[in-house]
Amino acid sequence: MYNSNELQRPLHTAPLSKRALQGAAIAFVLIAIFLLKAGEPNPAWPRFWQIRPLVVVPLAGAMGGVCYYLLDYLRYRGGWRKVVAIVLSLLVYIVGLWLGTVLAGTMWD
């Protein structure tokens, strides 16, 4: 039988918007550091070329946060499922950031 505490425990400890904002904030900080350390851009590029990466990469990070939120049900089961959920969330986040960076066209010469 189920313990009454298990039935009352919420599945998601944080709302979806919080997880998406956390993912976007981490991505924004990472791309901002990357852009600051990049040096001089190609003179042929538009004047405000940094705007696209500063928008696209945090959107990709927000999607990684959404993935983390959606895998909560596996994390709460514990054991090997928790490890799988954490590793899968991390892989999706890293691949999403990489794809967002490539999609934004950030200095991939």
Largest sheet: none
How are helices and strands ordered from N to C?
Answer: HHHHH
**β-strand number:** 0
Distinct helical segment count: 5
End-to-end CA span? 60 Å
Category from helices, strands and their pairing? mainly alpha
**What is the percent of helical residues?**
55-70%
How much β-strand is present in the residues?
Answer: under 5%
Q: Which stretches are low in confidence, meaning pLDDT under 50 for 5 or more residues running?
A: none
Based on CA inertia axes, which overall geometry fits?
A: elongated
Descriptive keywords:
single chain; 109 residues; mainly alpha; 5 helices; 0% strand; elongated
Structure overview:
The longest helix is centred in the last third of the chain and has 26 residues, at 79-104. The chain is elongated, with a radius of gyration of 18 Å. Helix 2 (16-36) packs antiparallel against helix 3 (51-70) and helix 3 (51-70) runs antiparallel to helix 5 (79-104). It has helices at 4-8, 16-36, 51-70, 72-75, 79-104. The model has no long low-confidence stretch (mean pLDDT 84). By secondary structure, the chain is mainly α. It contains five helices and no strands.
In short:
The protein is mainly alpha-helical and 109 residues long.
Task: Detail the topology: elements first, then pairings.
Layout: H1 4-8, H2 16-36, H3 51-70, H4 72-75, H5 79-104
Helix pairs in contact: 2-3, 3-5
